[in-house]
Amino acid sequence: MANIIIPPGWQSKDSESTSRSAYDSRRTFIKTLGLGSIGVIGGWSYACSDEDRIREVVRVADRPDGPLGTIPQDAPRAGLPADRNTLYKVGEREISDRIAASSYNNFYEFDGSSKEIWHLTDEYDPFPTVLKVRGEVEEEFEIDVFELIESMAIEERLYRFRCVEAWSLTVPWSGFPLAKLIERCRPTSKAEFVRFVSISDKKQMPGVANQPWYKWPYYEALRIDEAMNPVAFMATGMYGEPLPKQNGSPMRVVLPWKYGYKGAKAVREIEFTRRQPKTFWNDLAPSEYSFLSNINPNVPHPRWSQASERFISSLESVRRIPTTMFNGYGEWVGSMYPDEPRS
Ligand code: MTE
What we know:
Layout: E1 5-6, H1 9-17, H2 20-30, E2 38-39, H3 51-61, H4 98-103, E3 130-135, E4 141-144, H5 145-151, E5 155-162, E6 167-177, H6 178-185, E7 193-198, H7 206-210, E8 219-223, H8 224-228, E9 233-238, E10 241-242, E11 252-254, E12 267-273, H9 280-284, E13 308-314, E14 317-322, H10 330-333
Parallel strand pairs: 3-12, 6-13
Antiparallel strand pairs: 1-2, 3-4, 5-6, 6-9, 7-8, 7-12, 9-10, 9-11, 13-14
The structure holds ligand MTE.
Ligand MTE binds next to loops.
């Protein structure tokens, strides 16, 4: 059966939020940030271990497995579903539908011009992956990611998530504080920054083969104090299950006070440095994507406003809401940024 392809509710709103020419040039500019069409497959809630609903997704998407069928069979499941750490609140926002969170994605290694990533991930095999730890550390080492995840105390964090493109979600991630991994890496006192490098494989990731204009592998970085902040998280799962491939399996960085692109997916290397490392989007367009990239409604992107966002409750239910400073995490992270414009 053919896919039912309907532009999602927030696609037109994206162009409305931006002037038409800005919107068009944004699409052309990096061939990436425009919104592709997507199969509209229903508006379901987190409690969607509901087999009937998943079957409906499968039927509509004309796939035997659907966007949740991309959870790797051999991913570690120890500690899942994990207890939620209730210190972190999301306010009035409901949990986004898990189908939406796993079928509307940015993952340029697979495709930079569409959000429909999940059906491009067949060849991608996140396990086994060896994490390399290098640079300013007591001793460089490598560790199997499966073993690493199994050795960590897994907790759940319900976090807001905000993309620079002005769409947002609320996602229950599972994983461990990034600080726990940093401590295990034993950085030296000279380490000022930490750099994350993603998996990049032409054979497994069509976007790496087809988009040579990007500087693969994807690379991102934080200051050490940012990486050690208690809110910084390494996600290995979401919605009580291991991460689907399109969401960054085997593990991805989650920084809810920063625009989504600061969180590298499919991390395979961590490097500690003395100097501020280069980062993927900042290298491509430094005037548009800063190193810090904190979520700030007072600082518009050069080509669109960041004062509000389209909150994706489900694929059928998207509403515009105001963006908040540091995405609501100011009490945790605000003191790290005295120079961030507050008004
Ligand atoms: N990490 C890698 N390796 N490659 C990417 O293309 N996209 C970033 C970020 N991490 C990206 C990445 C962007 S732009 C966003 S908004 C988020 O992942 C999207 O995460 P999601 O698809 O799970 O919502």
